[in-house]
Specification:
The protein is an alpha/beta fold. The protein is built from twelve helices and 15 strands. A hairpin with a 5-residue loop joins strand 1 and strand 2. Helix 3 crosses helix 12. The structure holds (2S)-amino(hydroxy)ethanoic acid and manganese (II) ion (MN) (2 copies). The site of (2S)-amino(hydroxy)ethanoic acid (HGY) has 4 residues, from loops.
Length: 421
């Protein structure tokens, strides 16, 4: 007989976050990449936790996990309020990014199990970080049925493993269901989506506020730029005779930084990686790959920045006599979130005596995918110490995690009571 729906404590939340961070612990940090062994172990652990709390855990074809009352059949026939976040992490990331919302969703679904009104279902998306594949929010898109069968063979990781091949391991151990994308409506039809997440920036801490109510999420563009010059002897090739691909890349990286600085906040530009070949002391690099990212909260500004970057990259390569190909690898448009839900969250925070402000998210999130699909979606932040994230130093105080959870729980309780499903 499942346990009755129950009240939770801060310890219930924080202790489960600690346990989840052990899956993929890379000392320092956490590395839990979609479908890898630690991701699958974490997925299994979450389902076991759900069962001990009187819930069922149902994965869909992509490994998105729904945490629901066993009486709620997750077969695509029913609708619910979804609350959660993502299971995967960046490489050597922090313990809270995604994990906080996943555990909060689990406990909120357990706390509200069996109450009358709209069913509340916890969700844990399979992939959000682009840290193994560059499929662009694979979890959120597959959760909504937005993935074509072809993508499963086209999307590949750095080792050339396709989404389909990686998925096979998850299907083999039950962390993904054996359906195929074309046969899968969402297992749970989302009426609304609430994501709880750490801010990953400095604003809430600087303003000593407990809660961020996100009005919209900045968009991004990510390119892989490939430069081809001449591999030559480093001792005999005069500087005037070189077409050095790595030096060209270095100038492009500085041009990206200047572009973002010239434009001013909230524009940000990052070169996350340079890989030059052949990678020896005594060979002038003949080829180089650079990974470039631009972000902005305004669509037109992101377009302008992107055009300017592409022009600057072409001009640098041309002046240095190299060829360049610039591939847009993934992108997300800036996305407004639901203002009605933001109003509701603000009034819950006020009623609970929780300080809050509306704000923009510089980081991307699953809720930008659900909002873009027309599903009323909301993202709530809790403060990040020194604004640090995507780093082993990511930290949020237990009290702050608990405060965000209390607001999320009360908001879901009120939305549930209004019914509709
Ligand atoms: O990159 C991002 O903004 C998110 O953390 N995936
Ligand atoms: Mn995240
Ligand atoms: Mn992240």
């Amino acid at each position: 007989m499942p346990t009755a729906a129950r009240e939770f404590t801060a310890h219930d939340l924080v202790s489960r976050l600690e346990s989840l961070s052990e899956f993929g612990a890379t000392h320092p940090g956490v590395t839990r990449l979609v479908y890898d062994a630690s991701w699958r172990a974490a997925h299994r652990w979450l389902r076991t936790e759900a069962e001990t709390l009187g819930l069922a855990g149902t994965p869909d074809w992509a490994g998105n996990l729904f945490l629901h009352d066993p009486a709620f059949v997750a077969d695509g026939s029913r609708a619910a309020l979804l609350v959660g976040s993502h299971l995967d992490s960046v490489v050597r990331g922090g313990r809270y990014d995604g994990a906080y919302g996943a555990i909060a969703g689990l406990l909120i679904a357990a706390a509200l199990r069996g109450a009358s009104g709209t069913p509340v279902v916890g969700f844990v998306t399979a992939e959000e970080e682009d840290s193994r594949f560059h499929g662009g929010m694979m979890g959120g898109r597959s959760l909504l049925g937005g993935v074509s069968e072809d993508e499963l063979d086209e999307v590949k990781d750095a080792d050339g493993t396709s989404w389909r091949e990686a998925l096979a391991e998850a299907r083999a151990d039950g962390t993904a269901a054996a359906q195929t994308p074309d046969s899968s409506r969402p297992l749970v039809r989302p009426l609304r989506v609430l994501e709880l997440h750490i801010e990953q920036g400095p604003v809430l801490e600087a303003e000593r506020l407990a809660l961020g109510i996100v009005t919209h999420i900045a968009g991004y563009r990510r390119w892989r730029a490939r430069f081809d010059g001449d591999a030559r002897h480093s001792g005999t090739t005069p500087m005037s005779h070189r077409r050095d691909a790595l030096v060209c890349s270095a100038e492009v990286v500085l041009a990206l930084e200047s572009l973002a600085r010239e434009h001013g906040e909230p524009a940000v530009g990052t070169a996350g990686r340079i890989a030059a070949g052949p990678g020896l002391f005594n060979v002038v690099p003949g080829d180089s790959d650079v990974w470039l990212e631009l972000r902005h909260s305004d669509h037109a500004a992101l377009d302008r920045l992107s055009r300017e970057l592409e022009e600057r990259v072409a001009a640098i390569a041309n002046r240095r006599g190299l060829t360049v190909s610039m591939e847009l690898v993934s992108s997300q448009a800036p996305q407004p979130l639901d203002s009605g839900l933001a109003d509701r969250a603000e009034s819950v925070a006020r009623d609970l005596g929780v300080s809050s402000r509306r704000m923009v998210s510089g980081a991307a999130h699953d809720t930008m995918v659900t909002a873009r699909a027309g599903i009323p979606s909301l993202l709530l932040f809790v403060p990040s110490r020194a604004g640090i994230s995507h780093s082993p130093d990511e930290h949020t105080e237990p009290e702050a995690l608990w405060t965000g959870f209390r607001v999320g729980l009360e908001l879901c309780r009120r939305l549930q009571a209004e019914g509709g499903a």
